[in-house]
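Q: Hi! New to this. If I give you a protein sequence and the SMILES for glutathione, can you show me the bound structure?
A: Yes, paste them in.
Q: Okay, here:
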Amino acid sequence: MELWYAPTSPFARKVRVAAHELGLAERLRLIEVDPWSDARLRDLNPLAKVPTLVLDGGEAVWESSLIVERLADICGDRALAPPAGPARWEALSLQALADGASTAAGRLYADERRGPGQRSEAMLARFRAAIDATLRRLETSELTERFTIGEISVAVLLGYLDFRGLCGGWRETHPGLAAWLSRMRARESLAATEHPATDVAKGR
Ligand SMILES: N[C@@H](CCC(=O)N[C@@H](CS)C(=O)NCC(=O)O)C(=O)O
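A: Thanks. Here is the predicted structure of the protein with glutathione bound:
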């Protein structure tokens, strides 16, 4: 299988962490791509986004949540993405919240780099508000030591905030979340998929 990815993408990292947790990392051939300029990606995925998974038979799968479901299905694992009941909704709900905040963080990072005339201060404030409210909600929610797709998405969100230097003081204002992340960071799946040094020039 191929995983078309960008090392800066939190969504691609989420899939890579999940692949490690599922024991599938060795089966993924990583193909680094710039989704903004590489036309090959749009041939596979009309949305031209990373991550995009290409299955051995050639089928392309887009959207990180769907990719994780496919990977879990391939190895018959039911722990990362529980199949039914409250555990499933909790995991998917947590994933959706963290992914939404990662989207806001990505847009905040990109828009902050535009000139004052080319960005909307109202939108920047809205992205910041979404991230801040998500962190507050996560601080008061019961994050467990389980590592479902929900917790993976939260860990990836926090890693992305650190990587982009967004919300610098979040550990001081959210000590429970900070302590949870430092316990989770011992996992090999997170260590093996760290974002690289920031490429500020590209701003992506
Ligand atoms: N909801 C998508 C988001 C993927 C996404 O936005 N990827 C970004 C990189 S972090 C991308 O490929 N952007 C290129 C574009 O929007 O054209 C997912 O979970 O896979």
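A: Residues 200-204 have pLDDT under 50 and may be disordered. Let me know if you'd like me to explain how to read the tokens.
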